Amino acid sequence: MMAFLPLLALYLLAFTEQLGADPVEDVIHFTGIGAFNLLLISLLITPIAKKYRQGYLLQTRRLVGLYSFTYALFHLLNFLAFEVQFDLALFFDEIIDRPYITVGMAALIILLSLAVTSITAIRRKMGKKWQKLHNGVYLAVLLISLHFFWSVKSDIVEPLIYVAMAVFLLSLRKDKIKRWFKR
Ligand code: HEM
User: Fold this and answer.
1) Sequence-separated (6 or more) residues with CB below 8 Å from residue 145
2) Are 152 and 158 in contact (CB under 8 A)?
3) Neighbours of 71 (CB within 10 A)
4) pLDDT computed for residue 153 by the predictor
5) Where are the domains of the chain?
6) Does ligand 1 lie within 6 Å of residue 105's CB atom?
7) What's the maximum distance between 2 C-alpha atoms anywhere in the chain?
8) 22 Cβ partners below 8 Å, 6+ apart?
């Protein structure tokens, strides 16, 4: 639950007009970065658990992943509510016209499919397919890196740091990823 406190604080500040000159931009940035940070943390858990042989850490992956999805959902809701005022036609135009929104939406759909299938009963039913689907998180992390990179207008240092972190986390899984391409 603690991971939701910053989100609560954000909306309290936003609705009491205590954010900066552009509160819409602030909430979109905060939730976007929050979602990305949590996703990267979820991808850091397995390598750390393996290296230090702390298997119990693996149980935390689902929760951190779900937190990431929740932040991403708020990110989308903020965009829908404050940028396009729930005008769905305009929203679909944005998905088509702006590549960074296209890839953001694709990433969100992947995260949604992972969140839904993380329910234990569904996970059991899916058997081996579950792991295959969940490997989609690697694609999601690449799409989000691209989304972040394309969304900024000038200062590319921060997105580049994030891209580097994403590539690093994927490089730790290079053997697994190579195996897919060989098949
Ligand atoms: C569902 C579709 C999505 C929409 C419509 C959307 C929309 C946006 C918008 C409007 C911005 C701000 C661009 C600007 O500064 O002008 C943004 C930035 C960002 N988004 Fe998204 N996004 C989506 C999905 C995602 C997802 C799934 C993630 C991560 C899990 C994400 C992470 C980010 C990050 C990290 C930023 C940069 C924040 C910053 O500049 O500090 N977005 N997004």
Assistant:
1) 159, 162, 163, 166, 167
2) yes
3) 25
4) 84
5) 2-182
6) yes
7) 55
8) none
Q: Is residue 1's pLDDT more than 80? A: no
Report yes or no: 78 and 24 within 8 Å, Cβ to Cβ.
yes
152 C-alpha vs ligand 1 centroid, how far in Å? 10
The answer to whether 23 touches 70, Cβ cutoff 8 Å, is: no
Spatial CB neighbours of 23, under 8 Å, sequence gap ≥ 6: 14, 17
40 CA to middle of ligand 1, Å?
A: 15
Picking from 106, 12, 139, 118, the residue whose alpha carbon sits closest to that of residue 67 is 118
Residue 64: per-residue pLDDT: 96
Whether residue 32 has pLDDT greater than 90: yes
The proportion of the chain whose per-residue pLDDT surpasses 90, expressed as a percent, equals: 81
